[in-house]
Model the fold of this input.
Amino acid sequence: MSSGGSDWIAGSGKAEKVEGGYRVTARKIFSSGAPTGDLLMTSAVLDADGPEPTVLHFGVPMNSPHVKLLDTWRTLGMRGTGSHDVTIDGYVVPEAAVAARRKAGEWHALFHIIGTIAFPLVYSVYLGVAESARDLALGLAKRRQPTRHAIELAGRMDTELTGARLARESMLAAVRLNAPSAATVNQVMIGRQLVQRHAIAAVDLAMETAGGAGFYRAAGLERRFRDIQAARYHPLQFGPQSEYAGAMALGLPVDKIY
Done:
């Protein structure tokens, strides 16, 4: 399992140099799969390792007495991911167990790989949520005589869903280049923004297409409506993504835009 959401480009948590390794103190949010995971792949920031803070990457066993799972995952949607907070209090990472080091707050080749490969997988989930909502909505809509307005809603829903599918395909095309870089990250993040926009719009329209029947929990649509909202919160969010794309277009540096 990964502490993903808390360990973006800037890093989080504190690493202190001690004999033989680093003592780590951190609180990792959005640690998906935490209730069942055995090993937490995470990182911490070492301030006193040269002129600039350094992020250390390592694994921490979840059964360590220095690691605690907090029952914090009380959320609007995506509850099934079990993305609880995890605290690390005084765990010592041996020097040999540090898998990678990088500058804090700056894109690294490691994150070009993560940014290119991981997000098409993540946003495929949201596309799947939207596709499922569409199928449920059409099933409910077919139970009654369709009006012209209902037909229009169904058409708009499928149009938005197609937009999400095309955007996801653009993300996958960047992966198939097999050359992670700032340029592939840009292509993926533009696609990520478009999948979010179109998938959320498709689910909104699914609620309308279904009509009042979709408001009942038993119909399953309300869960899809809640789950799709989480598409808003992954990096790169709207502001940084727009700045990153704009800097790329203008030939400006992007190494510290995240």
Summary: The chain has two domains: 4-103, 109-250. The domain at 4-103 is CATH 2.40.110.10 (Butyryl-CoA Dehydrogenase, subunit A; domain 2). The mean pLDDT is 96. The first strand starts at residue 14 and ends at 18.
